[in-house]
Amino acid sequence: MAVQLRLRIQLFFVSVAYVLIPGVVSTTFTITNKCSYTVWPGILSNADSSPLATTGFALQQGETRTITAPASWGGRMWGRTHCSQDTTGKFTCLTGDCGGTLECSGRGAAPPATLSEFKLDGYGGLDFFDVSLVDGYNLPLSVTPQGGSGQNCSSTGCVVDLNGSCPTDLKVTSTDGESVACKSACEAFGQPEYCCNGAYSTPDTCKPSSYSEIFKKACPLAYSYAYDDKTSTFTCASADYVITFCPSPNVSQKSSQGQNSDTPAATTTPDGKMVYQGAAIGGASSLTRFLGSNAVLGMFSIVVAVLQQL
């Protein structure tokens, strides 16, 4: 009888640990398309992370898809646009293409493309994430944490349409002349001072350029060049994430309603330009954060004491 009771208690606390200890439970990514056109998300896992269940798919206007990533996953997600399939079955996209297939299968986005980048359960048990325009821009994108905590657990993104205001020497156009993407200066010119390589490979030598400052002014929370870390990297503990293509100005308020009271939104500046503002998210819904790590350790101390008496 004592052996059976001991086993049941052990199994119970293993289950509790799986639920409560950070880094054990997987992370959910909810990907939503609010664009007026179809977007084909692409997903690339880092070299030290396993591929997710899907690496590319179609997302119709207004459609949402949920993807689960394991603990410690790292990688990037982006949107492909103007995609088509020819008579031979070859699938290609005008922006964000990943090698001519619907599933990216280990291939990254051809620039220019707006990127969302993640490293889950990283240093200090925190998720690190950002939205990057280092490889250029092709469509508006936001990342909104859900249920996370931390001083820098904020929404980020680039929600403005940069294609229309893109400088002529960075602009990518379709065959009918429509502006569909905006290159980075590195992609357009290949110069070390823009690419932060060669003699410009450190934060001290590679500085913002007039081109990256165009991106930064429009999207102050997104990476505008390689060393734009101070204002562009965000961290959360135990969060899920909503990735939205073409978010509306109050997308964060809608997606986190009832969960987080302090939400970011896009505001309009006096010159008529829309700027995405981030705000720290203070609400925490995880039972781990409610109880605290000390409570978890206390529960294990109790069970050890009980087992010693059996």
How would you characterize this protein structure?
This protein starts with a helix and ends with a helix. It is built from seven helices and 15 strands. The chain is α+β, with helices and mostly antiparallel strands and 310 residues long. Strands 2, 4, 5, 6, 7 and 12 form a six-stranded antiparallel beta sheet that branches. It is globular, with a radius of gyration of 22 Å. 21% of the residues lie in helices and 26% in strands.
Count helical runs. Answer: 7
End-to-end CA span = 10 Å
Which structural category do the helix and sheet elements fall into? Answer: alpha+beta
Report the strand count: 15
Q: Report Rg.
A: 22 Å
Q: Strand share of the residues?
A: 25-35%
Helix content: 10-25%
Mean pLDDT, as a whole number?
Answer: 80
Shape category: globular
In this structure, how is the largest beta sheet organized?
6 strands, antiparallel
- Helix-strand sequence: HEEEEEEEEEEEHHHEEHEEHH
**Poorly predicted sequence stretches spanning 5 or more consecutive residues:** 11-24, 250-304
